[in-house]
Amino acid sequence: MGQVIGKMVYHMKKYLQEMYRRKDLLVYLVFSGLKAEHRNSFLGYFWWVLDPLLRVAIYYFLVGILRGRAEGFDFVGFLVIGLMGWRWTASTMSRSAKAITGKAGIISKVYLPKLIFPIGTTFTQMVNFCFSLSIIALYLIISQTIPGMNLIWLPFIMLIQYVFLLAISMVLSYSAVFIRDIENLLRHITRLWFYSSPVIWEHGRLGPDYQWFVDLNPMASILNSYRNIFLYDAAPMFNKLLIIGGISLVVVVVMTYYYSRNEHKMIKLL
User: Fold this and answer.
1) Which stretches of the chain are assigned E, i.e. beta strand?
2) What mean pLDDT is reported for the chain?
3) Which of 127, 141, 157, 251 is deepest in the core (most CB within 10 A)?
4) Of 220, 226, 201, whose CA–CA distance to 133 is shortest?
5) What whole-number distance in Å separates Cα of residue 255 and Cα of residue 105?
6) CB neighbours of 26 closer than 8 A, spacing ≥ 6?
């Protein structure tokens, strides 16, 4: 057993060393990914701000006005923070399915550790989320909402979400090489996850019979933690966030081993 673990650690160590030597490529992937998202659009980088604002306006009209949920609490702030946090998740998932398969032309000519691509994708979308924080800050200024000392936990929540999304990105990028239908299925999975998460509806809205589902949903804990520190001056949901982070780290380690051992299989299929 000890020899097996030793071999696993050895292969992963060599793989990570190779990735470190390619760190310049990782930086390039992040910057090129940021440029490519809105390269051909008229408004360019302004879409980083305009797109989430339009989403907030649409869902405020559909849910807040038509369904009458805008009364009784700060629904606009609730919606802004929920949609900003969800956007990071949805964009990471959609781009992860093509993180490796979309680079087949490069991979077939030059050897590159494939793990670089999902890492680059996740980090690129985290940078986009940082731009979205300006929208949250703007709303807090307009609504005269002053966050308290719990705002210091923002980097911690972002770190947990990054590790969580990195684990998802690694799984999706790896699986998409072997199962090309994942990209088609992912659109439906993402939509279902969106409507089953408290992005546009309040925590507890499903009632006690379905509360267990919300409690098991990682995005519920992440989004509610963001809302706690921005709107309610409350601490994040530490226990649940630590569980999400711990499980995600285990997935990251396991997937790193799979990447290091199956590089040759991935190259053949690409």
Assistant:
1) none
2) 82
3) 157
4) 226
5) 23
6) 19, 116, 119, 120, 123
CA distance 151 to 155: 9
For residues 160 and 4, what is the distance between their CA atoms, to the nearest angstrom? Answer: 30
Number of other residues whose CB lies within 10 A of the CB of residue 33: 19
Q: Do the Cβ atoms of 68 and 148 come closer than 8 Å?
A: no
Rounded distance between C-alpha atoms, residue 161 and residue 22, angstroms: 25
Helix axes 238-261, 154-178, angle to 10 degrees: 30
Other CB atoms within 10 Å distance of the CB of residue 136: 21
Q: Write down the pTM of the prediction.
A: 0.87
Measured distance CA(89)–CA(128) in Å, rounded: 11
Written as six digits, the tokens of 144 are 């005269």
Using a pLDDT cut of 70, give the percent of the chain over it.
Answer: 82
User: Which residue's structure tokens are 């309040």?
Assistant: 202
| Pairwise CA distance, residues 254 & 191, whole Å | 27
- More reliable by pLDDT, 223 or 24: 223
Question: Residues in the chain, how many?
Answer: 270
> To 10 degrees, what angle do helices 2-21 and 238-261 make?
90
Q: Which residue has the tokens 């072997």?
A: 178
The structure tokens listed for 168 are 């998802």
Measured distance CA(11)–CA(253) in Å, rounded: 12
Give the span between the Cα atoms of 179 and 124, in whole angstroms.
24
